[in-house]
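Lab meeting, item 3. Inverse folding demo.
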């Protein structure tokens, strides 16, 4: 999805299609061209958050619905960010750290799918970009990990 092509950001999307004679299948393009964005899956839909385009850092978010094969706009994030870590849990999307206005960030933006709204969560203890996060289920307790 997206990324850089010959000297520009892209909106193209391809998927691995193991049952076809071709290795990749072209999918509908994202609504915006973007690179350095975060992505996650929530409720069987793909969400892409922020990133960078030829105009700068983005606060836009879009969602791919595989049932309709369409990219749909989602409420924009409060702050434009690229190189952020994105993870989903319990009908929420967490956009963690990244680069905002050219500076590494420690803030956490949280999207609440039930209301279609964003707010800020507790900040990280240090700025972070290009990190990774996962949500892991251990019995009835769930934990989120971000590297040091």
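The presenter then showed the designed sequence:
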């Amino acid at each position: 999805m997206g990324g850089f092509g010959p000297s520009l950001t892209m909106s193209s999307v391809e998927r691995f299609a193991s049952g076809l004679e071709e290795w990749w299948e072209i999918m509908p393009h994202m609504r915006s061209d973007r690179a350095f964005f975060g992505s996650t899956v929530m409720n069987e839909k793909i969400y892409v958050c922020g990133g960078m385009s030829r105009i700068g850092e983005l606060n836009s978010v879009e969602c791919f619905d595989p049932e309709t094969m369409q990219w749909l706009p989602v409420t924009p994030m409060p702050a434009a960010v690229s190189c952020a870590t994105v993870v989903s849990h319990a009908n929420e999307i967490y956009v963690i750290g990244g680069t905002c206005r050219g500076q590494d960030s420690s803030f956490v933006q949280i999207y609440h799918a039930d209301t279609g709204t964003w707010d800020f969560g507790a900040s990280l203890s240090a700025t972070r970009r290009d990190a990774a996060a996962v949500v892991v289920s251990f019995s009835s307790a769930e934990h989120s990990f971000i590297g040091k």
